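One-letter codes give the sequence; the integers encode the fold. A sample entry reads:
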Amino acid sequence: MSNRKVSSFTVRFFWPLMLCLGLGLMALVGLTSYRSDLHLASQNLTDATQYVKQQRTAYDRFNDTSVTKSLMRVIENAQQIDREIQYKIALTGEATLNTDDLRRYTYEQRLTGIILMNEHGVVQREYSTDGLDYAALRGYVTMDTVLGTAQFPIKTYTARIRLDDGSYVDLAAHGRTDEPGVIVVYYHTSAEYATDYNLIIQNLLEGYDPGTEETLVVTSGDSIIAANREGLAGQNVDDVPVLRSIRENAHGGEMTRVRAGSGDGEWVYCMLERGRDYYVYAYMPLTRALDTTPKNLLFTLVAYAMVLFIVIMIRWRLKHVYQEEQLRREQSYQQQLKDAARKAESANRAKTEFLQRMSHDIRTPINGIRGMVEIGDHYSEDLAKQAECRRKIWDASTLLLELVNEVLDMGKLESGEIVLESCPFNVIELKDGIRQTMERAAAERGITMTDRTEVKHTTLIGSPLHLKRLLMNIWSNAIKYNKDNGSIDLTCREVRSDGKIAWIEFICADTGIGMSEEFQKHLYEPFTQEHSDARTSYNGTGLGMAITKSLVEKMGGTIECRSKLGEGTTYCITIPFAIDSSAAPRVEETAALPAATPEGMHVLLAEDNELNIEIAVFVLENAGVTVTKAVNGQDALDQFAASAPGTFDAIIMDVMMPVMDGYQATRAIRQLDRPDAGSIPILAMTANAFVEDRRRAYEAGMNEHLTKPLEPEVVLRTLAKYRSK
């Protein structure tokens, strides 16, 4: 066949072929879109109904759990007050609590009020913080079930009382063990808070965003109790044609098409699901359910026409466009190769510099530790030399620990993984605690420290752990780089506040060696130090100020530095903190309690490292503590489960162990069916010292978080805290 005949044949059948192809494509797209729309509509209706059922179940479970926790709390409060009475009798010989005692107990245990009655229901003494007293609660506190606890001191009564104004009272009554009588404690929740705190099914529906046009309705009987569309809640199902039609025609769990009423009513796709004591209706208009089908058809028609146009135009442009595209890709590829090579070179250079610095900084204290061990071995009979070697080993290990902590902190900050706390703290107590720690090091060099405080709002909300870290960096530098017999002037003042936020300014001015103007431009860069001998002379790492600036900025604050070489340095840090408006006024202690010690306690120690075991056993047994050792989490679980209740007073649990780690072991212990499984103190012992690590320990069921290297004083003080619990 000649070329002319082929061309004639192509022209003759091109358009009919394109027309048939277009019609076939439209039919395929229409059928596929229709089925897809139906499937999506069914899925949306199913998801909507299941969402309501799941949220309703969660709503019931949440409120039941909330009530139980609140009642358990007031029971523990009542029992604690009885123990306080016993303690006062043992301490002073007096069995009567005065109003100051009740006021203190009320604030300490965050109660609304306390009532002390004799066995006949006559008030002996009471205290209330909001006017809700014996007279208002008389009908409840004089019930037989309440007064009956006076005859059975081990018996406790508790109940949640709904008041007429919509508020409620969580109340607990406990029999006194020193004499016939009843201790009543209660916590009053206002009507406004009770309404906001309790979930209701209507809130759940209003928060649901279906993404299309589903209407969700929840009914109890024939009454509509909740809906995500205005005007439906409160109506009867029979008064809403579409709901009446769904009830008559829909099958449980299946999507059905019905008319929204009789006659020419709109068609809707619907689904009906039944719950325990309610029905869930979900429906959407047919036009919305099949919304994408006409759009897809129109899009296909336009796209097909454009493709035809492109096919016609591309034949004579194909070669030219192809060449341009190839040239562009080649240029782009070459540029990408250059950029990748440049980035790789920069990354390798930064990595090499980091490893070189770390190799030097880590090996220096390690060399000191190993060298002092060898010197100590040589002078094994010289006690003075032995003491000097131990002190230098301690100083070198402290520097090594500081370096590791700062490298980890810097890595967390650069990767954005650092987690700030949001908890109440007293800024004056935090500042004074740091100053007292620093004064000892300053006194060794004859450096005087003056302190000036001008803060109106002392109780703030923020991240005290990280605030303490950055202040210690600044203040320790003021000592480290100061001159002998120099001075440090510390200032903490409230710059301004708006009732919700207080801007606190910390100023540290020293008479040290100062910094040059050129170095101040690089002050906050990691591993930057002005003097080449800084690591040797001052034991610096060059990371402190980089960490400090990152922490200040993460907390939303600012840091300024003014320094002159040879004259000293002044740092000014300003950080905004939320004001803790709920902080209770501080109550002065009337008498100091004797310091508790862990002597006589029996502790289960779970640790897999033999050296760590030896250190922990030495610290504990030296304080009079009996220690039982477990080599992993599974061993600790088995030994605790096999022991009689009350055998162990506390468990010290390492986190990272073979077979079963500390978190898993703690959860398993808390789930054991024995009386002390939920109450025995479990103290985490770990080298993971970040905020998220402490939070993970608490979530696993641990009571405290002790970081390695262990500080004996902290370990013993923490154990002693749980001695009487």
About this structure: Residues 3-92 form the longest helix (90 residues). The two ends are 104 Å apart (CA to CA).
